[in-house]
Design a protein that fits this description.
By secondary structure, the protein is mostly helical. The protein starts with a helix and ends with a helix. 67% of the residues lie in helices and 11% in strands. It contains 8 helices and 3 strands; from the N terminus they run αααβααββααα. The chain has helices at residues 3-30, 33-37, 43-53, 60-67, 71-83, 105-115, 122-125, 130-152; strands at 58-59, 87-92, 95-103. It has a 3-stranded antiparallel sheet with strand order 1-3-2. The longest helix has 28 residues, at 3-30.
């Protein structure tokens, strides 16, 4: 096969894969759109919720550092989310003067509505044949490797 035909085939295949990625993300988005439309949080509050979700518990200082804000701002955001029952504040057993912040049950439920269940797409993938799953894994491994290589540069 001439080089120009191979290049066209490659371009066509890449375009199809990109289109399929977009279809996956659109399908994923359709399942969470109503939760996003109903969201009653400010962007800083949402960011804090995401930061808190990244660990079992966090201090106000750690939250402030991750958000790039002062501790008083982080403390205010924590208070607003405690009032909304989205995070919980508990005493640090090793230092009773310090509060530990973690997602509440309602906070976890909200994030799950916004980004979908943690096991997505695990349940859905079980409906795909083993050969197709193996091919998908190989392809995704290649994509992940490509992104890691880009990050190293």
């Amino acid at each position: 096969m001439p080089t120009s035909d191979r290049a066209k085939d490659l371009d066509s295949l890449v375009d199809e894969i990109v289109d399929l990625f977009h279809e996956v993300w659109k399908a994923r988005g359709r399942s969470t759109t109503s939760a996003w439309m109903d969201l009653q949080l400010t962007l800083p509050q949402f960011k804090m919720l995401v930061v808190v979700s990244q660990s079992d518990s966090s201090t106000v200082g750690c939250i402030a550092e991750h958000l790039g804000v002062g501790e008083s701002t982080a403390s205010y955001l924590v208070e607003r989310l405690v009032q909304a029952d989205l995070v919980e504040r508990a005493e640090d057993p090793s230092d009773r003067r310090r509060a530990m912040i973690r997602l509440s049950r309602d906070g976890r439920a909200l994030l799950e509505k916004l980004v979908g269940p943690q096991n997505w797409p695990s349940a859905q993938l079980r409906d795909i044949g083993i050969e197709d799953l193996a091919a998908l894994r190989r392809g995704l491994e290649a994509v992940v490797s490509m992104f890691k290589e880009i990050e190293r540069k």
